[in-house]
Design goal:
Distance between the termini: 63 Å
Helix content: 40-55%
Number of strands: 0
CATH class of the largest domain: Mainly Alpha
Bound molecules: heme C
CATH topology of the largest domain: Flavocytochrome C3, Chain A, domain 2
Strand content: under 5%
Order of helices and strands: HHHHHHHHH
Number of domains: 2
Oligomer: single chain
Structural class: mainly alpha
Length: 187
């Protein structure tokens, strides 16, 4: 009797460890795509960050790789692939470049170009209203939900001389073009 009880409890511990492992995986943040942010970030009162982004060149970055200009740039660099499939172009022109398929939700589409999640982190864990409000209030650990509040020093990860069409990057001027602040009254 005693022995079978021991075996049973060991099995229980094993099953619990297994399920914890599974939970840990389910808790990994996934890229959901900018369209998921639209429903809460389109109103004027909240600064319309979605609308500002959708009108920006970042939202066209994948489309750009389909133009004749892009094909000519690639050819000149000896890239014989379609730029929309070439790693050497995609690495700066899409969200979640080099991220495995399991870390992207079904709603994610690389056609969105340089989306919100490039700068704010994969959204699946932080996008629920409760978490967003807690983050804004400074009551939620950002790391635990893969959230990034936005860091202007990271722009040069793409805006640098590895870009075949590089134009000297002036941070403050560039930020003015894509700035999306929440009006003070909302905060
Ligand atoms: C269910 C609604 C909802 C969704 C979906 C949502 N947000 Fe938010 N978000 C909010 C609210 C509410 C705030 C708090 C500030 C406010 O009221 O505008 C906020 C604040 C933010 C902030 C500023 C937080 C801070 O640190 O002050 C960022 C950045 C942000 N959201 C990005 C995103 C991104 C990127 C997505 C999509 C992946 C997204 N949000 C999806 C509701 C949402
Ligand atoms: C993942 C790479 C990436 C990051 C990070 C990035 N950008 Fe960009 N950005 C691009 C690409 C690619 C384009 C060109 C899109 C196109 O024209 O199709 C672009 C275009 C722009 C443009 C338009 C330039 C023009 O000629 O009109 C501005 C402004 C800009 N980015 C500002 C910023 C700022 C500010 C940051 C940081 C807060 C930033 N970007 C971070 C990739 C990036
Ligand atoms: C290191 C990051 C990076 C790589 C790699 C990259 N791009 Fe870009 N691309 C950018 C950024 C940033 C911009 C916008 C600002 C600029 O031109 O400097 C841009 C803009 C462009 C534009 C618009 C130019 C304009 O004048 O508006 C085209 C076309 C383009 N890229 C094509 C390509 C092609 C084709 C490849 C692959 C051969 C490629 N890019 C690789 C970052 C990159
Ligand atoms: C190229 C990078 C980049 C992209 C793309 C981007 N953001 Fe941001 N975002 C930032 C940075 C950087 C900040 C912080 C600015 C600062 O330091 O004040 C920020 C701040 C914010 C804030 C807080 C504004 C405030 O006044 O507190 C919200 C909300 C937000 N972003 C939502 C979004 C949403 C939604 C998208 C996509 C539709 C998006 N962002 C796309 C870089 C980006």
């Amino acid at each position: 009797m005693k022995r079978s009880a021991l075996i049973l409890s060991m099995m229980l511990i094993f099953i619990m460890a297994l399920s914890l492992g599974v939970f840990a995986q389910a808790d990994k943040a996934q890229y959901v795509g900018s369209a998921k942010c639209k429903m809460c970030h389109s109103s004027k009162a909240r600064g319309n960050s979605y609308g500002i982004w959708a009108e920006s060149k970042h939202a066209k970055a994948f489309e750009t790789l389909g133009t004749e200009e892009s094909k000519a740039i690639a050819k000149k660099l000896g890239i014989n692939e379609d730029p929309q499939k070439a790693d050497k172009c995609l690495k700066c022109h899409v969200t979640a470049y080099n991220v495995s398929a399991s870390d992207k939700a079904a709603s994610f589409k690389q056609e969105e170009g340089v989306g919100c999640e490039v700068c704010h982190g994969p959204g699946s864990l932080y996008m629920p209203m409760k978490v967003m409000k807690a983050l804004a209030a400074g009551k939620q650990d950002a790391k635990a939900v893969a959230y990034n509040k936005g860091d202007k020093t990271k722009c040069v990860k793409c805006h640098n001389e590895d870009s075949p069409t590089y134009k000297p990057f002036k941070l403050e001027e560039a930020w003015e073009i894509i700035a999306h602040e929440v009006p003070k009254a909302q905060k």
